[in-house]
Task: inverse folding
């Protein structure tokens, strides 16, 4: 387990939990990234909600940008998949989170923090599919 | 005010994804590869991210969910749908398959745009097309 980073994982996770909690407490909204992004595609709740969603998405990109340029904290984001796999995966993530009404943040962090059984079922569904997909691509097909 | 709060919450969320390493799909795939437990190559970090996240979020959520109004004004917009449906599970399975293929879920994919990699941009565009298509077909209802 040479790649295991428990301390940074706990600190980073705590920040994600803090952001989700503050968003609910201060703005009264669930910090579900797929919902926030998806809502921008079909804006229905008036102008201010659009700006709030857009601001959250901008913050998501600006936060890491600040850390990588203004601090010594290093990180990377490595994609090893081929172009067709990247496109299919992106489509599946967009389609699946829309059909299933949420992703790792909305169901996984926010839903479980509300003790929602619905979100627990959703979380177990995408975790199970993730485990099986990695089993198939890494171990049965020898990497994609 | 609400827009500034959104920006700051997004930034803190992005800090968390960056510091936790979840911005890197290889970290995520290292967790999803539970078959690597046998040879000692498994990376349980993602479980610690979830644990750290829930440890902070649960007390705030339990406090906040009884409020009638958000601190910055406006309603508390909590989900009311409790139905466990085939659609919920099917969506989760489709999402999890895409997640396991590349290692990006929506938050880390957006945050990783900060690196400016072409692969990340292509993934995000495909994800938005998938979301838009599903919404256009009324599948978000």
Result:
């Amino acid at each position: 387990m040479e790649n295991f980073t428990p301390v940074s994982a706990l600190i980073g996770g705590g920040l994600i939990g803090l952001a989700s909690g503050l968003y609910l407490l201060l703005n009264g909204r669930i910090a579900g990234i797929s919902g926030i992004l998806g809502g921008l595609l079909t804006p229905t709740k008036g102008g201010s909600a659009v700006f709030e969603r857009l601001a959250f998405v901008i913050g998501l990109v600006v936060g890491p940008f600040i850390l990588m340029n203004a601090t010594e904290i290093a990180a990377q984001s490595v994609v090893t998949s081929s172009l067709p796999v990247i496109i299919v995966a992106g489509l599946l993530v967009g389609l699946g989170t829309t059909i299933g009404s949420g992703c790792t943040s909305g169901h996984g962090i926010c839903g479980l923090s509300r003790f929602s059984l619905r979100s627990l079922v959703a979380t177990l569904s995408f975790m199970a599919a993730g485990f099986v997909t990695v089993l198939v691509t890494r171990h049965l097909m020898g990497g994609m | 005010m609400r827009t500034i709060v959104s920006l700051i919450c997004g930034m803190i969320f992005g800090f968390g994804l960056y510091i936790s390493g979840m911005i890197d799909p290889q970290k995520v795939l290292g967790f999803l590869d539970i078959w690597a437990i046998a040879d000692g190559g498994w990376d349980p970090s993602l479980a610690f991210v979830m644990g750290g996240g829930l440890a902070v979020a649960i007390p705030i959520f339990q406090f906040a969910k009884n409020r009638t109004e958000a601190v910055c004004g406006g309603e508390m917009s909590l989900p009311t749908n409790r139905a466990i449906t085939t659609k919920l599970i099917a969506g989760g399975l489709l999402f999890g398959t895409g997640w396991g293929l590349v290692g990006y879920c929506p938050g880390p994919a957006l945050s990783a745009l900060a690196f400016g990699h072409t692969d990340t941009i292509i993934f995000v565009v495909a994800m938005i097309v998938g979301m838009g298509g599903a919404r256009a077909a009324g599948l978000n209802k």
